[in-house]
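Proteins fold reproducibly. Look at a sample protein:
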Amino acid sequence: MTATDVRDWDPGDGRLPTPSTTRSPAWSADVTPRATAALPPLAPDRDPAAPDWSEVVEHFREGLVVCDADGVVRHVSPVAERLLPEVEPGELLSAAGVPGLSDGDAGGFTHHGRRLTARQVPLSGARCCWYVEDVTDSVSRADALLAERARSAFLAVVGDKLGNPLHPDRAAAAVVRLAVPTLAEVAVLVLAPRGGRARWWRASRSDDEAPTVDSGVLAGGDLPTAIADGLTGVEPHAVDWLVEQAVDAGWLPGLAGTESAARVVPLPGRDAPVGVLLVARRSTRWYDEADVELARAFAARAGAALTTALLYRDQAEVADTLQASLLPVEPAEAAGVQWGTAYRPAQAGLRIGGDFYGSHRLADGGSVFFLGDVSGKGVEAAVFTGQLRQCLQALHRLESHPGRLLRLLNDALLETTQAHGQGRFATMVLGVARPQRDGGLTLTMAGGGHMPPLVLRNSGEVESVPLSGMLIGVVPDPRVGEVTVRLAPGETCLLYSDGVTEARGGRRGDEQFGTERLVAAVTGCQRMPAPALAERVEQVTCDWLAHGDHDDIAVLALRATGPGGRGSRHLHSVPAQAGADRQRETDA
C-alpha cells in the first residue's frame, strides 16, 4: 500500500482504503486463508512512518466485512470473525445466512444471543464494506433503564391513586384495579378476616377493555391455604398448586390452571399483614424476579393505603359511637305531657355540642325534665354534658325535688371539674312535671343561671317565668331559684338555650335575635303541638342567622295534652310575627 492509497482513504468517514490488485494481492485473490485475511504488510519501499492499517483495523470496535462487486467476501476482521463465525472469505455473504446481512438491509438484529447492528458503506469498484457492532450491553442497559422508568412511573401512579381513598372498600377496589394489566390479567385482594369473615375484591381484564371489579365474602376457614399462609406473612413459592387453589376458589375467570402463572404477596400492615394480593396471568408471561420485586413494591404501597383506610374506619366507628352516646336523648314518654325538641350544634360536622335536654320518669307518675348549656363548644363541651347527664340519671333516683336535686348536681359537678382541672360550669333549668286530673300540668322548676322559660297560654298571651339562680358547678351551695307554674290543658312551656336569644344576624349581621323577637315568633302559636313549636323556634332562629356562625341551639317544649293524654292531630298555620287578623286551621 503506497502513500497514494492512504491519501485516497479518509479514516474519518469509516471506509477502508481501496487497494488495487497489483498493490495488494491479498485483497484480489479468489480465496484468502482466514488466518492471513489481514491487510497486506507494508512494502519494503514504503515510508516507515506510514501507519500499518492492518493493526488499525484489528482495534476497531466494529467488525469489518469487505465484499467485492459480486458479493463475495474478501476480508473479515478479527472482531467480525468473533461476531459472525458463519462468514467465510471467498464465499458469498448471502450464503452465510446472517440476518441483517444476507438480505442486504442494514439495521439491528439478534444473532447467537447477541444484539448486533450493521451498516453498509459503498467502496470504489462497486465493492462494499459492512460495519458490524455488538450493542448487547448498551441495549441491555437501555432496556433496564426504560424498565426501571416504567416501574417508577407505575409506582408513582399507584402512590397517587392510593393516596386519596380513606374508605377500605374503595381502597381495596383501587388496589386490584391498578394491578391490572401491569402486574396481572387477574388480581385478587383478600383482607384479613374480621369477625370470622374475609372480604375479597377481584379485577379481571379481557382484551383491551377496562378492568372489571367484583367482590365477595368468605368464611375465614374457607380461605385457600396459600391465602391463609400469606395472611401470616409467608410468601408461598409453590406456584403450581397456588394456581390450582385460585382456580378452585373461582378467582381466575378465563385462565386455566395449566396455562397460568400466579404469585401471592402479603400486604404489610401495622403488626401483621393487612391482606394478601394474588396476581395471575398466562404462563407466556412468567413472573421473573423483577416482576416479583415490582409486585412486592406495589404491595407495600397498597398495604400502607389499606392500613390507613382501616385505621380511619376504626376511628370513625369509635367517633360515631361516642357521638351517639353524647347526643341529646329524646324525653321519655309521660302521661299528660307532649314533648317537642330541636337541636342544632354549633359545629354541624361533629353533631354534638354543649347544649343538652332530656327527661326521666318518676315512680309517682311525674317526670323530671331539664335543659341546659355548658361552657364551651365542640367535643370538650359535649363530653362535659355527657358527665352532667350521667350525674342527673343517677341523682334523680335519690332526690326528686328540683331545688335539692340541682344542688346535688352542683356538688357532683364541682367534684368532677376539680378532679380533672376543667373549670367548666353550666346553666340549667330543671323541673318536675306532674299531671293533674283535669288534664293540666303542674311544673315545679329550679333555675341555675339560665334564661327564664316562656309559657304560651290558651289566650294567646306569652308569659315569661320569673326564674333566677346561680351557675352550676362554680361554687358550693349556690343560690337556686324555684317557681311553680300551672299549665291548663293545651298550654305549653318553652325552654331554650342562649343559642336562640344570642343568635346574631339581621340586616347588619351583628344584631342579636333577643327575647322580644322570640316572644313575637311564638305569639299566636298556642295551639301548635309541642314538636311543631320547637321546630318553629329553631327555624326562625336559623333564618335570623342567615347561615352565619352561631352557638349551640337547643329547644325543649312540653305541652299539657289534656284528658286522654294525647295531643291534637291538627297543625295550625303560624301567623306573621307582626300579627295577623285571624288564624287558619288545616288538617295535617
Observations:
- DSSP finds 14 helices and 24 strands in the chain.
